[in-house]
Amino acid sequence: MAVKIRLQRHGKKNFAFFHIVVADSRAPRDGRYIEQLGSYNPNTNPATIMLNEERALAWLNVGAQPTLTAKRILSYEGVLLAKHLQGGVKKGALTQEQADAKLAAWKSEKAAKINAKKEGLSKDAAAAKKAAVEAEAKVNQERAEALAKKKAEAEEAARAAAEAAAAEKAAQEAAAAEEVSAENPEA
After folding, report:
1. What's the order of all strands across the beta sheet hosting 65-66?
2. Fewest CB within 10 angstroms: 20, 60, 79, 83, which?
């Protein structure tokens, strides 16, 4: 029986997450499995991986073959490095303490990279939000200036119309006064 470490799809359409399982290679993708090792959610940034590393290593040691994606996940989590270091310990090239120190150093470096990525993502999001707020403030200021300009033009037009009306009224009064004085030459 060929045993594989592979992904089992769950979730809804366009929003899948996966269980990492050990299964017979002849079993359907989402069907029967021997043991569930963890889960993988690619919908988060960075992707969330929950893995029982001891059990994954145990299955690798007894001959389970990971699929390509499962192999990348196991490598990302350091399970394949642990298997490699165990081989070095068995051959006598390393002591168990040296292997554990190398694995711990690798894991701490990996954790630092992940934290740096998370911080970078949060800084990028904050910068994008700040830029959006500044752009919105600029647009609002331009709109306010345009409204103030329109209001000033309307006030100027109203003032000019009022002055023209007053001048016309004064001209009509003067014309009426001239008519009255023309009709009454005695006065």
Report:
1. 48-51, 35-41, 15-24, 3-12, 65-66
2. 83
Nearest by Cα to 74 from 88, 96, 53: 53
Parts of the chain with a pLDDT under 50: none
Q: Which single residue is written with the structure tokens 């998370």?
A: 118
For residue 123 the two structure tokens come to 């800084």
Cα 158 from Cα 127, distance rounded (Å): 46
- CA pair distance 14, 135, nearest whole angstrom: 33
Residue ranges of domains in the chain: 3-94
Integer Cα distance of 158 and 162 in angstroms? 6
**Its pTM surpasses 0.85:** no
Token pair belonging to 173: 């009064």
Angle between helices 68-77 and 79-91 (to 10 degrees): 70
Please state, in angstroms and rounded to a whole number, the distance separating the CA atoms of residues 73 and 38.
11
- Report yes or no: 62 and 134 within 8 Å, Cβ to Cβ: no
What topology does CATH give the domain 3-94? S16 Ribosomal Protein; Chain: A; (3.30.1320)
pLDDT given for residue 66 in this prediction: 95
Q: What is the pLDDT of residue 29?
A: 87
| Calculated CA dihedral for residues 146, 148, 154, 158, nearest 10 degrees | -170
